Amino acid sequence: ELHNVFISTPLNNQVLSYASATDLWVNRNVSEFNDLQVRRNGFILFDDLLTIANGTSPFIKGALSSGQILASGNTQNNPGVITINCSATANSGAYVTYVNSATATSSFLSNNMGFDAIVSLGAVPTAATTIRTGLIRGTMTSADATEGCYFEIINTGIVGKTAMGGVRSSTASFTLAANTFYHLRIIYNSTTLNTFQVYNMSGSLLFSATLNTNISTGANAIQPTFLATSNNGAASTIALLDYIAIEYPSYNRGALT
Questions:
Q1: What is the pTM of this model?
Q2: Cβ atoms < 10 Å from Cβ of 194
Q3: Tens of pLDDT along 203-230?
């Protein structure tokens, strides 16, 4: 039961914080929070793709079957953009992930883990083009994922998918426009629920769906991944990628808890 509750709007460089000692909500300066305190609420690993150079941490980039990763035109709201092109070779394209291996160190799926990507299709999407992006297990190939939760885009249709042991479920499809950036968001809510959302660049929710079947468990390690390939037999642009991130929940790790 609440009586005489007053909460003022935080100013710039302030956050609203609950003070358990006084049982009050107060505005605190961001500078009061050190890195350990912030990480108690989880943390984000991201790549804004300001360079096409292949880094070693946290994300790496790689071409598949003579595909290409090229610098693209940046905008005020898209400070780093890469273009992924296919070649005339089958299953060509490229990927961005943080480990290209089914057995190397990855991240175990955890409740409330999140994934974000800002993506645009090329000018002329085709049925021979496939994009998979999300929390995926395994090496980077054109084959469908066997574990994880992710979006799959074929031509201009996008669906959310779950995979466990190679068995998959899919949401209804939503149609994307070519040459248009979208924010794709996935929330691994739990082992019984995954949420898939598509936003436009103004932040309006365009599509939302959930799946509760074939959800991979926390025993499976995954990589945040963007993977685009094509079989159209000619060189072309598959997609543009502006941003990729994985959001970790709070973990039990000493002072980080």
A1: 0.82
A2: 30
A3: 999 999 999 999 998 777 888 999 999 9
